[in-house]
Amino acid sequence: MDFSLNEEQKMMIETARKVGEEFGLEYWAEQDRNKAFPKECWQAICEAGLVGAALPEEFGGSGLGMFELALIIEELAAGGGGATLGQLFMINPIFGGVSLSKFGNAAMKAELLPRLVAGDLNFCMALTEPDAGTNSLALKTMATADGDGWRLNGQKIWITAVDSAEKMLVIARTQKPEEVARPIQGISMFMIDVKRAGLSFTPIDKMGTHTLSSCSVFFDNVRIEPHELIGTLHNGFKELLDVLNTERIVTTAGMVGAGRLATRLAVDYAKERKIFGKTPIGAYQGLQFPLAQSHAELECARLMNLKAATQCDLGQPYGTEANMAKLIGSQAALHAIERSAQTMGGMGYSKEYHVERLWRDARLFKVAPISEEMILNYIAIHDLGLPKSY
């Protein structure tokens, strides 16, 4: 598998690097303090033509693929945004872009995708539920047939950036579990307005990722129109997997970028800091080796992520690779951030040196969008052939 870059890809990476550095550490620290959506940064990313890398040209995208998108996100995250940067791509080019471009009707594509690419429209996805969590097949939110449309009732939790979104991709049951032969049947996807009668949400106070809210969402007899169905009625779960697996890729790219950023901060500090005589602390192997180890781990996660993205672009199965990359990526990023903080000693605990924000944001991805334990379950069952335990 050849990961050498052509000139167009190199130019995209350079553009992403410049935008990422323009909105650097101080910008993200301010957004974190204010718990504010990074709209200026997102608009600059859109204006640079980076958002639509993997979306069709007819709707304003570049017609490239997940490989290019992963490279872009990694570079933007390394500029200062850290792991949260990947979430911006998760909510828009993935939740909005992938679902619409692959499964939306012609009218929805023509209306919404150009606005997404231009930065005029934000999305969110309502999947996780309080009593289901990782077990998406146990969801209880129900869209019941009502004339030519549906009525939606239920609750979701940990839904990202609802307050910044205009459109919400909702995953709901359209058939009851007792009405279907297999648990994956009877599930459908819809793209609805966030501002709609019967839809309400409340923010969740949390440790990190403050630039994007997390909310509990409530549906009370919400009307869904027939044209808002995304994909196949009752058989949307397999189509949802395309959204979830590409979500893994952008998440990992953000994690790798965050690890690169933390390592760079540690290396810069270690070159300048002197304690015992005139020797920089970066000369001591007790600090060198852990940084070198975490760098090697990040490179391995990066390569697996690019493999997943390449297989996705080629139309080949990539679920295993995307899950493995996410597993190792989250571990490698947190290792790099921890070692950066350790290298800085007491200053690594201060807000001034930014590592504490990188840690707070990255810690989420040990459990989201899928936990380490569930990825290990997936690998054990699908790749090792072990019996299913749940």
UniProtKB/TrEMBL annotation:
InterPro entries: Acyl-CoA_DH_CS (IPR006089), Acyl-CoA_Oxase/DH_mid-dom (IPR006091), Acyl-CoA_Oxase/DH_mid-dom_sf (IPR046373), AcylCo_DH-like_C (IPR036250), AcylCo_DH/oxidase_C (IPR009075), AcylCoA_DH/ox_N (IPR013786), AcylCoA_DH/ox_N_sf (IPR037069), AcylCoA_DH/oxidase_NM_dom_sf (IPR009100). One of its GO terms (molecular function) is flavin adenine dinucleotide binding. Its cofactor is FAD. It holds the Pfam family Acyl-CoA_dh_N. Residues 124-222 form the Acyl-CoA oxidase/dehydrogenase middle domain. It comes from the Bacteria. Keywords: FAD, Flavoprotein. Belongs to the acyl-CoA dehydrogenase family. Residues 6-120 form the Acyl-CoA dehydrogenase/oxidase N-terminal domain. One of its GO terms (biological process) is butyrate catabolic process. Residues 235-379 form the Acyl-CoA dehydrogenase/oxidase C-terminal domain. PROSITE patterns: ACYL_COA_DH_2. This is Acyl-CoA dehydrogenase. Signal peptide: none annotated.
